[in-house]
Amino acid sequence: MKEKKLENPIRQTIIEIKNLRKSFGDNDVLKGVNLSVKKGEDLVILGRSGSGKSITIKCLVGLIRPDEGEINVFGTDITKLNNKDLNETRARIGFLFQNGALYDSMTVRQNLAFTLKRHSGFLKSDEIEEAIIEVLQNVGLEEAINKMPAELSGGMRKRIGLARTLIVKPEIILYDEPTSGLDAITSREISGLILSIQKKHDTSSIIITHDMACAKLTRNRIMILKDGVIHAEGSYSELEKSKDKWVRSFFI
């Protein structure tokens, strides 16, 4: 498989993290993380459990406050924003959680409508329904519109979770272990869906994953976290051939 390349290598930097540090008590999780993502780029972040991958993206949307560092999103350091301005920035970012985070008491339609109303309360009922149908078509699950989350398979829940993220038309999507707990075939389908969404909507994405098949398919670049800092960065093929045995261990 050929390396996926950006159509325009000098596109705008949409995310830039500088010297990000975060500790929990005596546990120094992030010790100076630096990374950037350009418009329309998919960045995969790898690392062992506890390396700080999920903490990094939670800091990126203000769910966790860093101890030090800058987090520039759309040209603004979000660590300096008040709650109102931070929420306005969050509205432009989609976050796909590991479990899809659907409301179990709502149908698929109600889950999607609730999210859309919360972000765009001025829409009419027919506009909401049109948006729901469109986004379900995008993830290939239009027939699941009246189902409850308990009636969905793990892969279907991931797709609906992605639909709920997409329905507000985010400019950035953060994926936290998008293929976790799925079989190989379903994982490949979800990875393909992530790639098609990036191409169709020109989103910028950060993908946290342990799934190397997902990393190989979806990435423009890969970064590997170790001991609280970015230990290695490059394309899949470059890192796979790294002289660093620890880096190569991810690709075995």
From TrEMBL:
ABC transporter domain: residues covered: 15-252
Record SMART domains: AAA (SM00382)
Keyword Nucleotide-binding listed: yes
A Pfam match: ABC_tran
Record keywords, A-Z: ATP-binding, Nucleotide-binding, Transport
Lineage: superkingdom: Bacteria
Molecular-function annotations in GO: ATP binding; ATP hydrolysis activity
Protein name: Phospholipid/cholesterol/gamma-HCH transport system ATP-binding protein
UniProt organism field: Flavobacterium granuli
